[in-house]
């Protein structure tokens, strides 16, 4: 452990692990043997970093020009074996991860990503730079997301999928190239959504992806159906405003 590292109460650092000088570890966080945490990195409480995970290493972005870009991580996150999470590229900017997330073996989070809460990246998932993942998203194993893609809340990405455009909330995307296949019925049931909420989400999905409409027309149809006033479906309008790469197309 380098001089200058700040460790909270009850932090555990295993044999042959490395904690850099600019690192701050929250209370009860565990860095297991042979894990690495370095860079301008702040990690919250009760996180668990497994052997050979590398957290807070320098970006792989060739645009890096020095300075102190960083990484901010919330509470109760799990980083399994050989997981890699990189700092941002530009001085003063941060890769950001929320709380209660699971990053399974060999998952990779690139520079400047922003990840919410209760997200699961299964084994071998790869996120390119500047990807935004909203809350309660699940990635299947060996899947990947292109730079600047946004994945909406409660979405599910199938294993081995290639995501090159934005996936709206509550939907399932699968395939290479990835396509929207359906709405995430099982995930929503497990998440405690009511039948009425799920019926509205299903209706919105059918308008967005089964009505042979472009995005503007589909959003107009959502308004006409009164779905812009429901919390669970109003998110599509906000998501559309933030979308940089356009919505992922649907399967025919």
What does this entry show, briefly?
The chain is α/β, with parallel strands linked by helices and 252 residues long. The chain has helices spanning 185-190, 195-210, 215-224, 231-242; strands spanning 6-7, 12-13, 18-19, 24-25, 30-31, 36-37, 40-43, 48-49, 54-57, 70-73, 78-79, 84-86, 94-97, 102-103, 108-109, 114-115, 120-121, 126-127, 132-133, 138-139, 144-145, 150-151, 156-157, 162-163, 171-174, 179-183.
Structural features, described:
The protein has helices spanning 185-190, 195-210, 215-224, 231-242, and strands at 6-7, 12-13, 18-19, 24-25, 30-31, 36-37, 40-43, 48-49, 54-57, 70-73, 78-79, 84-86, 94-97, 102-103, 108-109, 114-115, 120-121, 126-127, 132-133, 138-139, 144-145, 150-151, 156-157, 162-163, 171-174, 179-183. The model has no long low-confidence stretch (mean pLDDT 97). It folds into 2 domains: 6-130, UDP N-Acetylglucosamine Acyltransferase, domain 1, CATH 2.160.10; 188-242, Udp N-acetylglucosamine O-acyltransferase, Domain 2. With 252 residues, the protein is of the alpha/beta class. The chain starts with 5 loop residues before the first strand and ends in a 10-residue tail after the last helix.
């Amino acid at each position: 452990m380098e001089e200058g590292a700040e460790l909270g109460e009850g932090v555990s650092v295993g044999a042959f692990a490395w904690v850099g000088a600019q690192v701050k570890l929250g209370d009860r966080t565990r860095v297991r043997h042979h894990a690495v945490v370095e860079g301008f990195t702040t990690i919250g409480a009760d996180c668990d970093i497994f052997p050979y995970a590398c957290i807070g290493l320098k970006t792989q972005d060739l645009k890096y020009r020095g300075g102190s870009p960083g990484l901010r991580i919330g509470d109760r996150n799990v980083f399994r074996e050989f997981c890699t999470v990189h700092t941002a590229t530009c001085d003063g900017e941060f890769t950001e991860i929320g709380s209660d997330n699971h990053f399974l073996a060999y998952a990779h989070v690139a520079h400047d990503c922003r990840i919410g809460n209760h997200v699961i990246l299964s084994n071998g998932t790869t996120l390119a730079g500047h990807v935004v993942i909203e809350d309660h998203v699940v990635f299947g194993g060996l899947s990947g997301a292109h730079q600047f893609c946004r994945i909406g809340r409660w979405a599910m990405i199938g294993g081995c999928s290639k995501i090159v455009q934005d996936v709206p909330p509550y939907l399932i995307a699968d395939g290479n190239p990835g396509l929207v296949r359906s709405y995430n019925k099982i995930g929503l049931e497990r998440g405690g959504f009511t039948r009425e909420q799920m019926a509205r989400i299903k209706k919105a999905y059918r308008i967005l992806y089964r009505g042979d409409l472009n995005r503007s027309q589909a959003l107009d149809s959502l308004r006409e159906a009164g779905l812009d006033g429901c919390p669970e479906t109003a998110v599509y309008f906000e998501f559309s405003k933030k979308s940089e790469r356009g919505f992922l197309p649907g399967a025919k």
